[in-house]
Amino acid sequence: MIKRTLGMAALVLACATATTVLPVSTAQAKDAAVKCHMRFNLAGWSLIYKHAEGSGTIRCDNGQMGRVKITVVGGGITAGKYRINDGKGEISNVHGLREVYGDYAQAGAEAGVVKSSNAQVLSKGTVSLALAGTGEGINLGVSAGKFTISPR
């Protein structure tokens, strides 16, 4: 029993010594996660096929900002025409503006007459985009598609 305790103590001491000898990497500011905020306008239509286009501005907590083009394409059991004015988006799990650009998977249900509301969470790998907006139009249905953000 004493030999086992001494052996475990020696093993713990050896591990502690080894970890102090190994090089330590320090986290740098450029590796820190950044949150980006998007303001956008979007207008579209759907009749089985869904299409919308818009534009917006993205501002990140690290000072980066850019103007963007937004395109939505997809399909489903959906019909209507709508416009979202002054929508808001929160983008997380990025390290800068360049990681915001690309295609996000989209699925959702829409319902609205005259005044319309929309809220959804989209993803692109580990990057998530939470959208919220109000507008006007008529839309009803369930759809899936692609939400693309590109530099303008």
Query: Helix segment count?
Result: 1
Q: What is the second-level CATH architecture?
A: Beta Barrel
C-alpha Rg (nearest Å):
24 Å
Instruction: Please list the strands of the largest sheet in the order they lie side by side.
Output: 1-2-4-3
Gross morphology is: globular
Order of helices and strands: HEEEE
**What is the makeup of the main sheet?**
4 strands, antiparallel
Indicate the percent of residues in helices: 10-25%
* CATH fold name: Lipocalin
Question: Explain this structure to me?
Answer:
The chain has 152 residues and is mainly β. It has one domain: Lipocalin, CATH 2.40.128. The chain contains 1 helix and 4 strands. The chain has one helix at residues 2-21, and strands spanning 34-60, 65-94, 102-124, 127-151. The chain has a 4-stranded antiparallel beta sheet with strand order 1-2-4-3, with no helix packed on it. Strand 1 (34-60) and strand 2 form a beta hairpin. The longest helix has 20 residues, at 2-21. The radius of gyration is 24 Å and the shape is globular. The model is unreliable at 1-29 (pLDDT under 50).
